[in-house]
Design brief:
This is CAAX prenyl protease 2/Lysostaphin resistance protein A-like domain-containing protein. The chain has one domain. Helix content is 72%, strand content 0%. Helix 6 packs across helix 7. The longest helix is centred in the middle third of the chain and has 29 residues.
Length: 202
């Protein structure tokens, strides 16, 4: 258990702290995520995790497609409503932005491997309570986003979304479907300007 906790602190908390205090520049955020994902892949190999534990079984895609479709549509509509209420307009000429062409797909897939594919089994080995696993997973997911914003309402929105992602993955374990769902929702969020810029420090 101590090793599992150490992995979480070093690879999930420390990089965010270093980037928050600009010890690691914001422009290296994707490099940082990629390095963390690579190290976690090595840990997965050392632990001998199979495809089932990683949620990579192909039959699950067809079995869980409907719940993920409903989940993605529900959160997508919620994001559209929030953007309307906050008067966020869509990004102009987004198709010319490389982030929209490939960046958000890569980031979404890596985040799901890191926060759901790896972190949830790790948390399940630490906590016996599913509720605790979901809450800690969502907290760490929201904590990662402080590099983009320290607005409490934005972070609350991410925390609630994290609860949704964690709950879906626990009850419908498919890393492929959760990554697709995250990609779609991330596109909507980035299109309307949520969490794309470095937060301003006083």
């Amino acid at each position: 258990m101590l090793i599992d906790i150490s992995i979480i602190v070093i690879l999930f908390v420390l990089p965010v702290v270093l980037m928050s205090f600009k010890i690691i520049p914001f422009k290296y955020k994707i490099h940082d995520l990629g390095l963390v994902a690579f190290l976690l892949m090595l840990i997965v190999l050392l632990k001998g995790w199979g495809t089932q534990k990683l949620g990579l079984q192909l039959p699950a895609v067809g079995e869980f497609a409907l719940p993920y479709l409903l989940f993605t549509c529900g959160l997508g509509i919620a994001l559209l409503i929030i953007s309307k209420l906050t008067k966020n307009t869509g990004k102009e000429r987004w198709w010319k932005d490389s982030h929209f062409i490939y960046g958000f797909i890569l980031v979404s897939a890596l985040q799901e491997f890191v926060f759901r594919g790896f972190l949830i089994p790790e948390l399940q080995s630490i906590f016996s309570s599913t509720i605790l696993v979901v809450l800690v997973n969502a907290l760490l997911f929201a904590f990662m986003h402080i590099i983009y914003s320290d607005n409490k309402y934005s972070l609350l929105m991410i925390f609630v979304g994290g609860i949704g992602f964690a709950t879906m993955y626990i009850y419908y374990p498919s890393l492929i479907l959760i990554a697709i769902s995250h990609t779609v929702l991330n596109f909507i969020a980035v299109y309307f300007g949520f969490f794309t810029q470095e937060r301003k420090r006083a």
